[in-house]
From TrEMBL:
Pfam families in the cross-refs: Aminotran_5
Keyword Chaperone carried by entry: no
Name the UniProt record assigns to this protein: Aminotransferase class V-fold PLP-dependent enzyme
Origin: domain of life: Bacteria
Keywords: Aminotransferase, Pyridoxal phosphate, Transferase
The organism of origin for this protein: Cognatishimia coralii
Entry keyword Transferase: yes
Domain Aminotransferase class V residues, every copy: 25-402
Any GO molecular function: transaminase activity
Signal sequence residues: none
């Protein structure tokens, strides 16, 4: 089965927007286009439901039901319980709140493991636990390849380690880490696991239940939705961590790690993400009646999207690998990396981004808050890297245009 790209792009208003005509979008790692069901739900909520939810009158009742719908349907796609899904203003904020709960739970002398492959969201907040007497161990990447070796983690795990934090994939290295394997190692040693899925979730809603981590976090604005942080906290760890919300919400798993009131409209609009994925699955003949389970449906659609991304990645990797003036971070094979390509360049990457824009390529240059992995790989933070990233709605002709533009500006 191949991805029907015409159907995919018909679900995204950006592709019929006159102000974007002729432009090729290659900064998807910073945030994706929103799909039509999300935009429609958000618009409807602001027009018809923008009141305090969960009261008995219709506008309020329906607003609350739409919020609950988003939570229930996202949980089903990720293979977890509804109450295990928490919404917050961002993944960075969700991580910070969770780290405060862990700070109260751990004792002096306990240890956590973090990596230097992470975007700062899943690193900085955890490292601050050292101020409370918690031992913070760093699982380090290979400075040449950016690879995280599970064997190195095995050597670090002992009875003092209570939590292991790592990314599903880095936003600059892009190698896809084996979440299930790493989780099994940590669990065998008696540690919980927290996975940052921000850079991976756009490439297919992850089967969190099947992979097994205790915490999994990602950002809905990178998965075709509004600007929210979505956090799965499994009962295994959620029930033992101290409440961080109003004391009377301590008995609710999805409320206890959300001290601020959620953005009602954006939470409700997140159901549009599932609307889109369900429509995409149905269009390609993927449904639970045929696959046998929601988990199988999730995996089948994920594989369809990834196959398309892998096909597009191969000619770009071949081109980038042929250039002596650039260094592509991460793996040189499409199968084990997300389609996010951070490039160390001889020319100033910010200047290259500006030149690419003249050729209709929307991309950016920065350190992308990946200060630790770039530093570990001897990439100067100023000026950083040129980053080119795409998702499943990217077309082969977009890749052709990108390669042509790169050939002219490098």
């Amino acid at each position: 089965m191949s991805l029907d790209l015409a159907f995919v792009r018909s679900q995204f208003p950006a592709f019929s927007e006159s102000s974007l005509e002729g432009m090729r979008f290659f900064e998807n790692a910073g945030g994706s286009y929103a799909c039509a069901p999300v935009i429609d739900r958000l618009t409807r909520f602001y027009r018809e439901r923008k009141v305090q939810p969960y009261a008995s009158y219709d506008a309020s009742r329906l607003g609350g039901e739409e919020m609950d719908e988003a939570q229930t349907r996202l949980a089903a796609w990720m293979g977890v319980e509804t109450e295990e899904v928490t919404f917050g203003p961002s993944t960075t904020q969700n991580t910070y709140v969770l780290s405060q709960a862990v700070r109260e739970w751990l004792n002096e002398g306990d240890a956590i493991i973090v990596t230097n492959q992470d975007h700062e969201a899943n690193s900085g907040a955890w490292r601050r636990l050292a101020d409370a007497g918690i031992t913070v161990k760093e699982w380090q990447i290979d400075p040449e390849t950016g690879h995280l070796n599970p064997d190195d983690l095995s050597d670090m795990l002992d009875e003092s380690v209570r939590l292991v934090c790592f990314p599903h994939c880095s936003n600059v290295v892009a190698e896809i880490n084996p979440v299930a394997e790493i989780t099994a190692l940590a669990h065998a040693a008696g540690a919980f696991v927290c996975v940052d899925g921000v850079s991976y979730a756009p490439h297919g809603i992850p089967d969190v239940g099947g992979m097994g981590p205790d915490i999994y976090m990602f950002s809905s604005y990178k998965t075709y939705g509004p600007h929210q942080g979505i956090m799965v906290v499994r009962k295994s760890i959620g029930d033992i961590l101290p409440n961080q919300a109003h004391y009377f919400n301590g008995g609710s798993l999805y409320k206890r790690f959300s001290p601020a009131g959620p953005d009602h409209a954006q939470v409700a609009a997140c159901a549009g993400i599932v609307d889109y994925f369900e429509a995409l699955a149905a269009h390609h003949g993927i449904d639970t009646a045929k696959t046998g389970s929601q988990s199988a449906t999730t995996h089948a659609l994920h594989d369809l999207l990834r196959d398309h991304e892998i096909t597009l990645s191969k000619p770009l990797i071949e081109y980038l690998s042929s250039k002596n003036t650039i260094q592509m971070l991460g793996p040189r094979t499409a199968e084990n990396r997300a389609p996010t390509f951070a490039l160390k360049t001889q020319d100033n990457p910010a200047d290259l981004a500006k030149e690419l824009f003249k050729h209709g390529i929307m991309a950016d240059a920065s350190d992308f808050y990946a200060v630790r992995p770039l530093g570990a790989m001897n990439v100067p933070l100023d000026p950083g890297v040129l980053r080119l990233s795409f998702v499943h709605y990217t077309a082969p002709e977009d890749i052709d245009a990108l390669i042509s533009a790169l050939d002219q500006v490098l």
